[in-house]
């Protein structure tokens, strides 16, 4: 059954069969497969001027049995598939921007992703915007994070999430921006690279135009604090490379979740 064209009930049945052990989802669906889903309108996130209209969004499979389930299912410890917005939340091809943290950068500088108000928004407002059958299938997964800029170098608190932003390492497969500058850590401090992001071109995202890509690429946030300054967080540039900016910058959003 094709991921793009299957009915809601067929998608649910395939995932249930995978977790029951009667099929392997990777024999049927593949990294790069897409499906259009309707998102309901969303309220403001971490800034008063932020809002998101109802829109159709193309979701892309970025990983298969990649993310660690909070609670194993019939002995399976990995979520069947990880989906991400193929483009940025948008309105008729224009990006709908948001803060990674908020306008109060002094709070952002001594906290980390586990305390990030954007994370709260993702696990509440964004999840609630998804179709009901998707909400019933979402799996809580454990995400790895690095410590914040002003804390001890190395790993930060793991988080348990239904929806999340991808990390620098999950996108790029290295730690060039996300390690603490004077104490380099292994590449997996923020998880492993998703198979979908094995090329720079796939990291380029455009504002959503009701299920298709707008005409001009735009920046979007990752969940990773930068190693270069206390108030900086990492984003993906329009060319698919990484850069860092103040946490109060208004950039695009491409949430991800697991089924």
Q: Can you walk through the features of this model?
A:
This protein is α+β, with helices and mostly antiparallel strands and about 260 residues long. It has one domain (about 25-259). Helices cover about 15% and strands about 25% of the residues. The chain is built from 5 helices and 16 strands. The strands form 5 sheets. A 5-stranded antiparallel beta sheet has the order 1-2-5-16-10. Strands 4-3-8-9 form a 4-stranded antiparallel beta sheet, with no helix packed on it. A hairpin with a 2-residue loop joins strand 3 and strand 4 (about 75-80). The protein is globular. The model has no long low-confidence stretch (mean pLDDT about 90).
Record the SSE blueprint:
Blueprint: H1 8-20, E1 34-39, E2 55-64, E3 68-73, E4 76-78, E5 81-85, E6 90-91, E7 94-95, H2 105-108, H3 117-129, H4 132-137, E8 141-143, E9 159-161, E10 163-164, H5 168-172, E11 208-209, E12 212-213, E13 220-225, E14 232-236, E15 242-246, E16 256-258
Antiparallel strand pairs: 1-2, 2-5, 3-4, 3-8, 5-16, 6-7, 8-9, 10-16, 11-12, 13-14, 14-15
Short description:
This protein is of the alpha+beta class and 259 residues long. It has one domain (26-258).
Shape, principal axes of CA atoms: globular
Spans of at least 5 consecutive residues with low confidence: none
Percentage of residues in helical conformation: 10-25%
Count the DSSP helices. 5
**Mean pLDDT over the residues:** 88
- Strands of the biggest beta sheet: in what spatial order? 1-2-5-16-10
Number of strands: 16
Terminal residue distance? 16 Å
Kindly name the structural category.
alpha+beta
């Amino acid at each position: 059954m094709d991921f793009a064209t299957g009915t809601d009930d067929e998608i649910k049945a395939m995932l249930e069969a995978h977790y029951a052990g009667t099929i392997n989802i990777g024999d049927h669906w593949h990294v790069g497969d897409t499906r259009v889903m309707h998102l309901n309108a969303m309220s403001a996130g971490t800034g008063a001027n932020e809002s998101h209209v109802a829109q159709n969004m193309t979701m892309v499979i970025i990983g298969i049995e990649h993310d660690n389930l909070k609670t194993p299912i019939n002995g399976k410890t990995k979520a069947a598939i990880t989906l991400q917005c193929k483009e940025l939340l948008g309105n008729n091809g224009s990006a709908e921007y948001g803060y990674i943290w908020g306008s109060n950068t002094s709070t952002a500088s001594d906290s980390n992703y586990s305390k990030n108000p954007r994370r709260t928004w993702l696990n509440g407002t964004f999840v609630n915007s998804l179709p009901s059958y998707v909400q019933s299938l979402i799996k809580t997964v454990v995400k790895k994070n690095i410590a914040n800029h002003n804390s001890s170098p190395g790993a930060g608190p793991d988080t348990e999430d239904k929806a999340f932003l991808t990390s620098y390492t999950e996108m790029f497969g290295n730690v060039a921006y996300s390690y603490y500058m004077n104490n380099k850590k292994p590449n997996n401090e923020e998880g492993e690279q998703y198979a979908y992001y094995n090329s720079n071109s796939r990291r380029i995202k455009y504002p959503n135009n009701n299920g298709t890509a707008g005409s001009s690429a735009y920046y979007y946030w990752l969940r990773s604090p930068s190693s270069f300054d206390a108030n900086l967080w990492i984003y993906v540039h329009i060319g698919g490379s990484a850069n860092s900016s103040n946490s109060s910058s208004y950039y695009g959003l491409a949430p991800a979740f697991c089924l």
